[in-house]
Amino acid sequence: MQAEFGHYLLVLAFFMTIALSVIPMIGTVTKQSALVYSARPLVYIIFASVTGSFLCLEYAFLIDDFSVTYVAQHSNSLLPVRYKISAVWGGHEGSFLLWIFILSGWMFAVSIKAKALPLMSYTRILSVLGMITCGFLAFLIFTSNPFDRLLPYFPVDGSDLNPLLQDFGMIIHPPMLYMGYVGFAVSFAFAISSLIEGKWDATWARWTRPWTTTAWVFLTLGIALGSWWAYYELGWGGWWMWDPVENASFMPWLAGTALIHSLAVTDKRNSFKGWTLALALTTFSLCLLGTFLVRSGVITSVHSFSSDPGRGIFILTYLGIVIGASIFLFFMRSGKITKKVDFSLFSKDMFLLLNNILLICATFSVLYGTLYPMIAEAFGRKLSVGAPWFNMIFPVPMAVLLVLLGIGPLLNWKKHDFSQVKSTLIKQLAIALFISGAVTFFNDDHYLWVFIGVFLSIWVASSSAFFIISPNNKSTDNRLKFKRLSRGNLGMLAAHLGIAVTTVGIVITSFYSIERDLRFVTGKTVTLGEYSFKLVNTEAVSGDNYQASKVNFEVYKDNQLVNQLSPEKRHYVTGKQMMTEAAIDPSLWRDIYISLGEPLDKSRQVWAVRIYVKPFIRWIWLGTLLMGAGGLLAALDKRYSRKQKITDDIAKKDIKIDIEPSVATCKESP
Amino acid sequence: MSSKFSYWKMTVVVVIFIGFIGLFFWALSHDPRELPSQLINQPVPEFSVVDLLEPEVIHTQSMFNEKITLLNVWASWCAACYSEHPYWNQFTQTSQLQLVGLNYNDKKEKALRFLESQGNPYKKVIFDQSGRLGIDFGVYGAPETFLIGPDARVRYRHVGVVNSKVFATKFKPLINKIKQGF
Fold this sequence. Notes:
heterodimer, A: alpha+beta, 4-stranded antiparallel sheet, B: alpha/beta
């Protein structure tokens, strides 16, 4: 019953999105208030029905309704309840329903939070979001219905959720990631709306900024969670593989990072307008491209969903329409975008322009590496691009970017006198050289890379410190200077500091990690670096849906017990799958990571064991948390919540007779 | 801004866009997983490549004679191989088939470390450091698994991870056919 109801709600939402795409849009052209005002209630209905549909699927999982194909494939009666809840997004159909649920959530949030926008823009934005949702809903209903039944013969029990996904990280990683992915639909809708209107100015940018930044925060955290999950769950100690699916989420992140910076210029200086609009369109297009790559099966990857050419064609068509239409619209209007280049080479504007160029270069190098095997195959050659290629190419634009990042924030808009920042830059340089030199001196290998990496991080970090006391800060009292910073500036500092922290983490962990594959006999102690590892014993344990061998280790440093670690080798009963559960002793300075290989004898007294000591690896995720916190602070800056002064002429121009200007602007106090 | 310039830019963007769509469309109809290798039912390519574990041993195509073989292409840089590997460890304990590994485009010490930590289910491991043999076999990316008949002809090619389900549906029927002499 709940499956049919959920399906019904999806179809209802589908028709409502058609209505939302058409009716209010016509209203904005014909200026009929009844049509224009239909937008918000339609959004409410869509949000309510998609939410209802999502809950129906959740319910089907919770009551173990294995007559629903999707439930039978991704759940099992033995599965713990928390994983039954998250199993909803354990496969293609359900995760896409989650995707649409989140998209409708964003749409709902826009309909509530953006009421102060001019009525016509507000309506158009919701209508564009309706179009996007409509396409996704059609995809779900026609090619990947999660409510399909297995009738009349349905299995007694389900075939279980992939054990890799039975994990806390997997409960929160997809929702976070999708929040980011679809969040860029909002900036896309803002951009399309302003292109339709033919009006783009600083106000447009100011409205878009908090939404874009919020989406970026979620995407940042989502990617970081995915990386953290891969690290502790996959059992080989890696945290980033340059897998096509990882790249699919990383490209919108890079473009989105460019977008939030470019929006800042448009907001503050009313320039870069065409570029910012193009970036908003590009970022969302990359999100769609990612969806296509992950869900169509054109690319071989660990994470990609089961392939179905019908689905691929559908998404490709959708992608073609959305991107094609936005390119068309953009070039229709781009002639009218006024260009303004009124900044000197040494100014914040210039540095943000370079930031954008470098980020776009980085995005395209990732895109190129991801698609290259496909392009090569089209020309009759077969090859795969692995992590080494990305590791060689990607750091180049990033290193240049970090150099600029240490200078840009200190500069004024429009023009800056080099002599003013000269002394600060020299101080920064001295600090960075000193610290990176010292770090390199006390380690004995990989001098050059570690030196460069640490130098760049300290360079950025010290620049952030100098920003607080820079002359741009109006307060004369140094103690007050920190307090005088706006949330936007604080957020920027936190995010930039996050970049520095992540960079240190990446560099140190890449070059100074120790990994050994060892043969362990029970009772034996093996020394690795400063640590000694003792295999104490092996016990048999069992969980809700698995049986496992748990091997207990004791870790000593200078004959002091550091920790007891117990990695497991699990055998999942239903899916008949073997899983390695690594044991990790985390700390700020280093992680100790033990992962079990195979038992080397029948009595399970001898094991092949892989041990890692990974210094600074936590810094990678710590930095992303800082970036996320920074983005959140920036999105909460007071300048966005200030009541927008809306000029009367917009209302006069848009609305002829039947709506009074005061109503038209929808000035409601928040 | 002159309108001519805008047309020029637009043409470039539209051409790139159409190129991408065309490429993706092509890629969809040439799904790498579905794509049968040109070698299907053809004899395996001629080769003579060293063994990974015993560098003095040289393997040639004759290693496939008289046995039904599964040739599994793997590499230490291949993330999917880590998730596929436990299946082969399990497989090799029960199956009578010859399981040969083709270590593709890899570094020796990394490949050895992979086998040490993940287990070695293979009877023999061909060490294709240059990737040359992989190209001759038409390898798209790791992991891939070829089913090779006792006449040293390639019978089936699977791109992506093999698990018990894939084996039962894709490999098992073919193996039964081969055993019956087809």
